[in-house]
Model the fold of this input.
Amino acid sequence: MSLFKSREWWYTHAGAEEEYDTCNLCVGNVDNSPDKLEKIVVGSLQGILRIYCPRTKGGNHEDMLLEYQTDSPILGLDIGRLVGDSGLYLAILHPRKVTVCSVSVDTTTKDTGTFYNISQIYSHKLERTACNMCLGSFGSIKNKDFICVQSMDGMMSFYEQDSFAFARFLPQFLIPGPLCYVPSTDTFITSSSSNFVEAYRYQTLAVSTESESKDQIKTGAGKRLRVDWKTNIGDNVVDIKIFSGADDNATTIFVLGEHNLFALRENGVIRFMKKFDFNPSCFYPYGSLVEGTVNMLVANHSRTCYVWQDTTLAWSSSFQHVPVNIRILTVGSLKGHIVTLDETGKIYVSYLGTDPSLQTAAPVERREINYDEKDQEMAKLQQVIRECTKPIEHAPKITDQPDFSIFVEPVNGLDVVGVKHEESDTEYPTVTVKINLRCSSKISLDKVTLTVAPEVPFYATQRSVVLTNVGSGPTSLATFSLYNTGQRVASDLTVPLVAHYTNNHSSPRSVHNSIHLPLQLVCSAACPEKSAAHKITIETNKPAMNLLELFSEMNCESEGGQNGCVAFKTVSGEVITLLAAKNSQKYRIQSNSFIALYIIIQQFLMKLRRHFEKIGGTQPLSVTFPGPVPLQEYFDIIDSRFELRLRQRSYREMLSQRAQQFRAIQRRLLTRFKDKTPSPLQNMDTLLEGTYQQILALADADLQTTKALEEADHALSTATKLMLLLVKLWCPNLDDKQATVLQSCLTPDVNSSDDVGWEEMVDASITMLLRTCLAKTTKEQSVGAASLKLPSDTTKLKKHIALLLERLNKGGTLSLNTYADKVSHRNKDQIESGS
Done:
């Protein structure tokens, strides 16, 4: 048992989900019982008052005497002689009211047990929001206690029991500090925001007329309120308490700061000071056995309690929580129990030291070891271990077969009523998607969570739907509403759909599917444009289609003949025109936006293939792109994004330099401020302000660049998808397997948050292809690998992309097996020539 650990004698938790502060605990004979037992009174910020009387070790339900719900939060509690008789009464401070109550035993319930009542004697409404209060015999009145309440704006209100006396404003007040009363000098002690401990005599406050209102403070009317004395302690004050020994005239004022403890005499002279190397949370002074000294309990945020005798450490022990208030309690005839309260309402009554051991251990009986019995016991234990480690044959086998299937019903068109986006009042058209879950076996799942993950510019009115009791009926239905805000040009009409659930074997599973959005959610019919900056021509081996029939759901109007042309306008404002040739098998897609071409070309080719598959025929549909590949448009998008990356790196380097400069100036200023001999700042304060403004400007510029880089990422991703689609149509020998290899190297997944950028990864991948399966000479195979560092420009990357596409168009293959065959044949020829 540790000697330096507080021993728990009694414990309770005063309510759940309640908060407590430094003034929410007091100790005393609040019910005026004849046995003079001290009670623990606590009040929470939720307005619940509780009174406890610890009697036995450990505690039981009978220790709670009273629990009472007030109508407002409790800011402070104190016990004093607040009524005409000599009894003790409880003062309760609320934000706008101070109440004096009596606690007594209900004499009408003696047969059923002891019950306590609380009744209000009188109360005072406060004109201003209260902060704290103190009790005392103000004006040296004997056998009576009065109330002083300090408000949040510095007004001290005095109440002589059930009548209001007067109110005064403290001069040069900013924020309220701790408040206490010194009876020997009839003085109030508080602290100011400038780290001064100030004293005001009650007589001075009573006769002063200057501080009755804040307007009189400014004009200086009436008698001026002056400080009796003040002392600069140079530390933020946490709490103030007074201690009077056997001689009431010898009073010590203790001031607890965030890093120091001061002991002041009645006239404000520092008696002693103790500097702490920890952050204290609360303290409490009490009497010492050594004459002329005072003991103090000081608790810190590391759950440690120190017992100081003036400036000498006498004891230290650990607590089980971080107390916000600490008191000394007498239980029966036993003195010296420590009561602690933390911010969550845990109350501990503990003592220091150890419990005496009343039992002695019996001597160990020595006997010889029987090795035969030990061997038999070891064999039995090994047999038990082998049986426990055997695999359970009847355990359920987990298969990859899902418990249900997800069916997405096709979307017929847009909804009649749209939806408004959270960030704007614009109404956007929506589509409602219905999801059916069909169980594959006779099972029942308690909960299945369906989640959609749309990418900008698509949004969902709700990201997830929870279905219960799946499998009890034939199907389970869920609906999602999705809409397009037009923030970007859409590059994909597929939205991922995932179902998360826990099966009957308590193992988490998931089922994946996707939602295919209609083209109407991305664009609408528009008037064709004759001229455009970007044009793509596609050839087929079938006669030109009637575009009105192909895009019948868009309700387009034809222009220019039988096949005509159709035009689409995206939600973001781009116009794409699709033309069909009259006398040939060609189609042209044109627009002023390069990335807007992708979604229309993709949907056009998909509709074209579905149409001719439905018709059938001896000759399958063949689609080709005659070229040339629009490399210049693609390279412009790469250069624009790369410039944003360089700009972002420049901003962050400058931001790091300015932050380092800002910290250096702060250290210089702190050294000047700590210097005992004042010296000029040499315009360092101006330099600090200028550096701070530069940091703010650089942070705003970096934020704007990051947003622009996100848009550039989307543009590059869409442009890369368009290039991959055109290259597959442009290169006759590029099959689906090689197209997958090309997509893994020239990837459309662009993310600026990665440490390694898109340019470095693509350059390294293409360099690997040019050194292996697309290499023409042995010299090209010996070229070193590309670096994964941020390059100075994109010249090498653009050169490698152009070379890659050129070799693919000339019949190159993206197959590492072909490259391995070439290497083996070359090695074989070298061996034969050498022999």
Summary: The radius of gyration is 42 Å. Residues 84 and 612 are 104 Å apart (CA to CA). The first strand starts at residue 7 and ends at 13.
